[in-house]
Amino acid sequence: MAGATDGSTVDAGEVARFSALAEEWWDPRGKMAVLHKFNPVRLAYIRDALCRHFTRDAKRIDSLSGLRILDIGCGGGILSEPLARLGARVVGADPAAPNIAAAAIHAGEADVAVDYRVTTAEALADLGERFDVVLAMEVVEHVADLALFVRRCAQMVDPGGLMIVATLNRTIKSFALAIVGAEYILRWLPRGTHQWDKFVTPNELEIALARNAMRVVDTTGVVYNPLADCWQPATDIDVNYMVVARHAQ
Fold first, then answer.
1. What is the pLDDT of residues 46-74, one digit of tens each?
2. CB 143 within 8 A of CB 174
């Protein structure tokens, strides 16, 4: 695929695009504003899924204590930090050095411990890294090789562990809302943030996971509520959706 190198899941064009936004990551009113609004619903989904699976109390402020989590494609760390605040041992990985620099600076200022690394899924897998949970949130629609990316991520999930993915469905509705609406009309995202042909259907994602001993155990849609000006879980998976997959071994 365009932008990829042999044996790599990294799309160089995507890395360059997000590197250029590095200084915007922690500005809730900047170019990442929509991601900041999206963050609470995905954080709650992750926390609740992990607490159910690992038998934790979701109400505790240290509900994820001791769990080793990989946030692959972590960007500026806006998800890694709150997970670490819940007690998780978080590795935040991103191939874009400017993103990791922005993430590390913010974590230092906030006094939150996150192990940030400029690296890729395949490099971590080659090192033999293992995690209780691997997160790929808003990442799979940006990689150069979906099957390879899922395979390398799945290799890092401990037996009985989880992989959680958030992405965009490839439907006419998602083209209208996530690209035409979000990028060209509402200007929520910079133009060119997404490529519709790289969106991933739930069936495609489930097949890729199943080929790597990962079984989908939960799926939820996420929709925007304009009256409340927030994102919320929904049964509608036509545009944004998240899945939880459990290591079958």
1. 999 999 999 999 999 999 999 999 999 99
2. no
Phi, psi of 186 (to 5 degrees): -80, -20
pLDDT at 173: 94
Query: Does residue 25 or residue 60 have the better pLDDT?
Result: 60
Question: Tens of pLDDT along 158-197?
Answer: 999 999 999 999 999 998 988 876 766 667 677 777 788 8
Whole-angstrom Cα distance, residue 96 to residue 109? 21
Among residues 141, 182, 135, 180, the alpha carbon closest in space to that of 161 is found at: 135
65 to 47, 68, 114, 115: CA distances (angstroms)? 11, 9, 13, 15
Cβ atoms of residues 239 and 221 within 8 Å:
yes
Burial group, residue 66, by CB count within 10 angstroms (0-12, 13-18, 19+): exposed
- What is the rounded CA–CA span in Å between residue 131 and residue 166? 18
